[in-house]
Design brief:
The structure holds 2 protein chains of 2 kinds. By secondary structure, chain A is of the alpha/beta class. In chain A, 37% of the residues lie in helices and 25% in strands. Chain A is globular and about 55 Å long. The model of chain B has no long low-confidence stretch (mean pLDDT 92). Chain B is built from 8 helices and no strands. Chain B is elongated and about 65 Å long. Classes of the chains: A alpha/beta, B mainly alpha.
Chain lengths: 273, 239
Amino acid sequence: MSAVSFSAAETQRSSAVVDFPSTSSCFDIEALSLAYEGKPALRDLTLRVPRHRVTAFIGPSGCGKSTLLRGLNRLHDLNDQVTRSGRIRLEGQDIHARDVDVAELRRRVGMVFQTPNPFPMSIYENVAYGVRLQGVKRKRELDEIVEWALQSAALWEEVKADLHASAWTLSGGQQQRLVIARTLAVRPDVLLLDEPASALDPISTLKIEELIRGLKSQLTLILVTHNMQQAARVSDYTAFLHAGELVEYAPTDTLFTNPRLRRTEDYITGRVG
Amino acid sequence: MDITNETHSQHISRQFNQELEQLKTQLMAMGGLVEKQVQDAVEALLEGDSRTAERVRDSDNAVNDMQIQIDEECTRVLARRQPAASDLRLVLAVIRATSDLERVGDEANKIARNALTLIESDRHSRGMVEIRHLSEHVRKMLRDALTSFARFDTRLALEVLHEDESVDNEYTTATRSLVTFMMEDPRAITSILSVMTILRALERVGDHADNLAEHVIYLVKGLDVRHTDPGELEGSLGE
């Protein structure tokens, strides 16, 4: 073991820095502030999200973690009450630049919500839907993409016998994996997951978590969760947000064994802050 | 983040506070028991009190039972609370500490058994001064290590780590002179071997106190300083 230091500065250096080369950066968020009807929801937030890793945003209700997540594929564009300053770059490109096609951005940055929201159609059609919109028409090609996406979402074995059954016949956990398959089918670079397992039973939750881990070789995943054990289990990096500010951002192992700041410690250990 | 001995009593769940407090209390009780056993075993030898030596020899079960009970408590906390950060470090430190304390109990037992052999041989042996000195030294280490655990005092823990070096030196010097005595007087070999076993047991108690101090540093600072040279720590601790 190398020299050990107890000085405050040393401890800070060793525990708090999320350090990776800028070339490994997927999202680069710089001085991001966001307000709903003038009420600040994110305050001067700067962080980098590494490519092909799972990054978790944790924090109490109203801390801004979902707001931040939705900002990453410009879901706030639909709300004129939202004001924003600062910059978000995806693979070096400003996502708010004039020449950015929002539909294309949302293809590249897919999103999965808390409650599974399959379309009222068959399993096959759910997955093929986005792909068809992209202009793929040949049945054989569609079949291949549907199978690949369902395989990637670890659902294929359970549904391959009846792909034309209604998506509503699936269980909640299966529906959530179907939604993930539908998102994967259009080949995104990033998958945003907003409490993806909070409505699921423990076994379905573990399947989703296993899926998240498996997917990171293909894409970058960002997870918002209230379930701290889940963040600890699946993520590589964890950002703790509080009152719209980034409090602490560290490798997950460090954050859950030896956080640098008292506020983080109090939150993850369930203390009166 | 450094923590204090108040840190574990501030959870929203008061039940959780109590569970962690209980772990600390039980660990201290176990520490008190093994510390007493080492003291009794050595005093029994120095005063020729075979009854006390027998009592220490036969009281191993109490320590073992405490270890099992505390470990079960830790398992329950891990399963039910899934502790994180300093809570997790506390549970891990307690599990590690019980294992060290249980071994201190074993060493006390070993001292008591050899004390009985020496008392029964009814022959005045050399090495009693060394045993007295070393035992005082390691008992202080053990006491300080337990105090540092109770108070989350890393400065005291650091002192314990430094003490271990001088205990090791004291032990080496004592065994060297006893070897000389054995060469001079072969009839004394049997009893001196018992004395050496006792010295070795005391030196091991020092090692376990040293481990306890390392657990305290892990608990409070989140740093694993096992297998780190104390001299190397000295310059960089900033304590």
